[in-house]
Amino acid sequence: MAKKIEHLSCSECGQLHCYRRDKKFPDHCLTTATDDTQVKAAVETYRGDSLDARVAHAAAEVEGLYYCKISRVEEVVAFARRIDAKRVGIASCLGLVEESKIFAKILRTAGLEPYTVLCKIGSVDKSDIGIPDRLKIRCGTFEACCNPILQAELLNAARTQLNVIMGLCVGHDSLFNKHSDALVTTLVTKDRTNGHNPVSTLYTARMYSRRVLDPEYLKKL
Fold first, then answer.
1. Residue 183 contacts residue 88 (beta carbons within 8 Å)
2. Full-prediction pTM beyond 0.90?
3. Nearest CA-CA partner of 185 in 103, 123, 109, 120
4. 90 by DSSP, 3-state: which?
5. CB-hemisphere CA count at 13 Å for 91?
C-alpha cells in the first residue's frame, strides 16, 4: 500500500491548469492556496527595469523565439546577449574541461568573453579538509578536492556578468551558486553513469533503474 502523502504539492497534480487555464485547479493547488498579495508581489518584480525583470523578460523571449528550435548551448548565448552579459564565467568540472574548451570557443565566436575556472583550483588535497583517505576515488594518492567557493570568488574577481555551470558535483554546485555574485545558469549537469543525462533515471525508474523506488536501497545511500 502506498504511503499517504501528508502535504500535497505540484508533483501530485494531474491537471496543470495553471499553464493554459483549460481544465480546473485541484483542491490542493498551490496557486489557489497562495495569498494574492504574494502572487502580485512576484508579478510586480518581473515588471519594470530591475535586474529580476530584465532576466525574466530575457528568459521568456528566448523561450518564445527558440522553443524546440535551438540547443541549450545556443540558448545560453541568446540569453547572455539579452541581459547584456559580455563576460561569461565557466565553472567547469575537471572531467568536462574539453567540453568547456569547446563552449569557450563558441562564446568567443559569438563575440562574448569567456573566463573559465576549473573545480580543482588551488590544488588542495582532500585530506587537508578532513576527508578520510578511504573516501578518495584513488586511496593513497594526492587527490585534489573540488573548490567551488574559490571558483566563485575568482569569477567574482573577474567581474563576470553571467556564470555557467559545466558539470559541477551535486553539492559543489550548491556552494558555487551560493557564493557567485553573478547570475548562474547550468549547461551541463554531471551524471557519469548516464552520459550526463540524469533524467534518464526518471524515464527508466520503473524498468532498468527501478532500484531508485526501493526504500531499502535508498536508505543505504
1. no
2. yes
3. 103
4. strand
5. 36
Average pLDDT over residues 128-132: 97
Rounded CA-CA distance 88/94 in Å is: 18
d(CA 54, CA 202): 33
The 3-class SS string of 144-192 reads: ECCCHHHHHHHHHHCCCCEEEEECCCCCHHHHHHHHCCCEEEEEECCCH
C-alpha cell at 165: 555551470
How is residue 197 written as a grid cell?
543525462
Whether the per-residue pLDDT at 86 is higher than 60: the answer is yes
Q: Centre a 10 Å sphere on the Cβ of residue 188 and count the other Cβ atoms it contains.
A: 20
- Cell of residue 170, nine digits: 551535486
100 backbone dihedrals φ, ψ, rounded to 5°? -65, -35
pLDDT for 21-63, tens place per residue? 999 999 999 999 999 999 999 999 999 899 999 999 999 999 9
Place of cell 576549473: 118
Helix (H, G, I), strand (E, B) or coil at 138: coil
3-class DSSP state of 21: coil
Predicted confidence at residue 2, as pLDDT, reads 59
Query: Which residues are CB-neighbours of 199 under 8 A, at least 6 positions away?
Result: none
